[in-house]
């Protein structure tokens, strides 16, 4: 089995479509969305019309029937424009609905998955908690049986799309004695009287709305239990592993955007009669940035290819995510340095890109978590 290091005509068509969409329709919305820290939820309908919410799902299930490479292209190009837009898209189209497609009943698919593909309903994924961070096994939110369903109690933190969502997948323990086998997913329609939302203000991905949720006796009918009370945990892990390759593509898009901005500045900014880029110190920075992006590019799409081949493992996903996210942070920092004082002015995008890039050395599993996964794959026990 060999990897063909070129994109197909279909892949290039996907990239062209997303670039036009970003240039003509989405790009003009970014500035106001960032300043107001409010996501223009109407774009979900447009994404649904174009089939962008179903990129990874079979045509037989209402999706676009494309591969993981196409999914990563969409993520990369959306992130090149705005990581906040890409984050809201990702939280919906993968984490928010993938488990429903994977293990949901026919009725759950009809009620939630299908309208989510159309952009008629917005989804999110409630996993992280205030005391747990990246440690899913430390989950404290619990689900107890009640007449006709379940009552949820606990809290969730950093939940993307929560304030604009029509439903969330919420992870909770159904049996405190079983760890982690008893972690299950519940489809919670919003608003729910037991959910108290607190919108968070963030330094990065500002226009992607995020919330802290306090959950008190929130009733969920039994037909909104996703899967069973035991055995859902591997589905959650599988979803996270594939999504780590996806967010690596997000990081790649941010790195490219920061590099292109820095290269343009270095080409047009004149100091002492020379382009800034003609000074060796700046030229070397640009050379290093270019090399790191090229390496991350092929690693990301190797990971996507592994997903399509059905051979992705947790350690490979961790390597892809670690390298791409750290590259985005390093490249965007150097882009600010190349801009000098202009780098911290909002008229230039590099400051925003750097703030956004920092999110992904934390989100979807910190860089330290990725290093632990890789180290265990090497036979060590950090």
Descriptive overview:
The protein is of the alpha+beta class and 382 residues long. It folds into 3 domains: 9-118, Acyl-CoA dehydrogenase/oxidase, N-terminal domain (Butyryl-Coa Dehydrogenase, subunit A, domain 1); 123-230, Butyryl-CoA Dehydrogenase, subunit A, domain 2, CATH 2.40.110; 234-377, Butyryl-CoA Dehydrogenase, subunit A, domain 3 (Up-down Bundle), CATH 1.20.140.10. The protein has 11 helices and 10 strands. The protein has a 4-stranded mixed sheet. The two termini are 33 Å apart. The model has no long low-confidence stretch (mean pLDDT 95).
Task: Summarize the main sheet.
Answer: 4 strands, mixed
Distance between the first and last residues' Cα: 33 Å
CATH superfamily of the largest domain: Butyryl-CoA Dehydrogenase, subunit A, domain 3
Counting DSSP H or I runs of 4 or more residues, the number of helices is 11
Number of domains: 3
Task: Report the count of strand segments.
Answer: 10
- Unreliable stretches, pLDDT < 50, 5 or more residues? none
Which CATH class of the largest domain applies here?
A: Mainly Alpha
User: What order do the SSEs take from the amino end to the carboxyl end, as H and E?
Assistant: HHHHHHEEEEEEEEHEEHHHH
Largest beta sheet: what is the strand line-up? 1-4-5-8
Q: How much strand content do the residues show?
A: 15-25%
- The whole-number mean of residue pLDDT values reads 95
CATH overall fold name of the largest domain: Butyryl-CoA Dehydrogenase, subunit A, domain 3
| Proportion of helical residues | 40-55%
Radius of gyration: 21 Å
Shape: globular
Class by SSE composition: alpha+beta
What is the annotated CATH architecture of the largest domain?
A: Up-down Bundle
